[in-house]
């Protein structure tokens, strides 16, 4: 084997190793991004303060138990019948015809879940805008006008964001990593240590709560850092492979 053949062989081996490394990194990023998509499912209690503040604790317990049961059962069934190649949203894995029917049946629930988030944001902004005015109670002409206008603006902004960014799972993962990681994990932990805790953190009566909140804080930071990095890597990979659709388009990829 002459010098040129040796160089070409080494170059081919280097390219092969580089491709294998890229594939491994892409798989790791995809796994982390998929794990980040789970985080929003445990943030559903955030609107409860605005909706059922008087029964907040009972509502959180009920929500947590029901969520864990439903998501565990649903995930197990989807994995059993679909396998690892689950699309996002998962209804797309059922095929074009069945997924269209399923989305049609699910439309009421989709509208309801979206309206809850919109209502929470709208109530917060509306209450701040008219803090010392009767308009804040909405049941006036000006109250209804400003309320409907505000809800319309919020809905349009949400729609533009959802349609302008052509990757659903990664958008969900980035929002989970940057925002939900805080409001679900490390913000509550910080609040407990700084505002709610009575006595020293290492006191006998606080040890269990301190451990739980400390663990929640660590999980939140891991989700924030690793999740954001994995989501960005996943987006870069999709752009390199040309598997990103166009903004404001419902056309499937070729």
Automatic annotation (TrEMBL):
Occurrences of domain Amino acid transporter transmembrane (ranges): 58-232
Pfam families named among the record's database cross-references: Aa_trans
Chief location: membrane
Key word Zinc present: no
Keyword presence, Ubl conjugation: no
Region (Disordered): 1-31
Transmembrane stretches, start-end: 60-81, 101-121, 142-162, 174-195, 215-232
Biased composition (Basic and acidic residues): 15-31
Location of this chain's protein in the cell: Membrane
Highest taxon above the source species: Eukaryota
GO cellular component, one term: membrane
UniProt keyword list: Membrane, Transmembrane, Transmembrane helix
Cross-referenced InterPro entries: AA_transpt_TM
Name of the protein described by the UniProt record: Amino acid transporter transmembrane domain-containing protein
Provenance organism: Verticillium longisporum
